[in-house]
Write a structure and sequence with these properties.
six-stranded parallel β-sheet
Length: about 170
């Protein structure tokens, strides 16, 4: 069972994602937060495998919350959620330790597949996020995110989970 913590300041988004995941075999929502400030406490008590983290929240944003969370619980896999992607936000999320970036307008079943992928140790940088991340210069002081090669930033694939080695060119990841 994959244990998921939802973090989003919009109750509607939390409710919709929670409903989707509650109908998905093998995935359990173990907690919800409406702001990044709540993440360390809730994650510490629920022990999630994956955190779905909204990028923009009023008090503590998703990138800062990811840094704090991973300093305390480095085994947790963080998948960022956003309404839009910019090169700055995507690169900051990667540098903070996020292993993926999913746009809220994306296919819900791709989110479910992405949760399974990141829980298994893979990455999910789909759509615009993958294109933007490929333009980031990870210099000698920085390290490219796990699962990406510096030359093309190709996401990790898991053929045994239905993700072919060549990926899904029409899906953007």
């Amino acid at each position: 069972m994959i244990r998921v913590l939802l973090v989003d300041d919009h109750a509607f988004v939390r409710s919709a994602v929670s409903q989707l995941l509650s109908q998905t075999p093998g995935i359990e929502v173990v907690g919800e937060c409406q702001d990044g400030a709540e993440v360390p406490r809730v994650a510490g008590s629920t022990n999630p495998d994956v955190v779905l983290m909204d990028v923009q929240m009023p008090e503590v944003g998703g990138v800062d919350a990811t840094r704090t969370l991973l300093a305390d619980l480095p085994q947790v896999r963080v998948l960022m959620l956003a309404g839009a992607a910019t090169a700055d936000v995507v690169s900051e999320a990667a540098r903070a330790g996020a292993v993926g970036f999913f746009l809220k307008g994306g296919d819900p079943q791709l989110l479910v597949s992405g949760i399974r992928t990141v829980a298994a140790g893979g990455t999910l940088w789909n759509g615009d996020a993958a294109n933007l991340l490929s333009t980031v210069n990870f210099g000698s002081a920085d390290v490219a995110p796990s699962g990406f090669a510096p030359s093309g930033l190709e996401p990790t694939r898991f053929p045994e989970q239905g993700f072919p080695e060549q990926g899904f060119p029409d899906r953007g990841f």
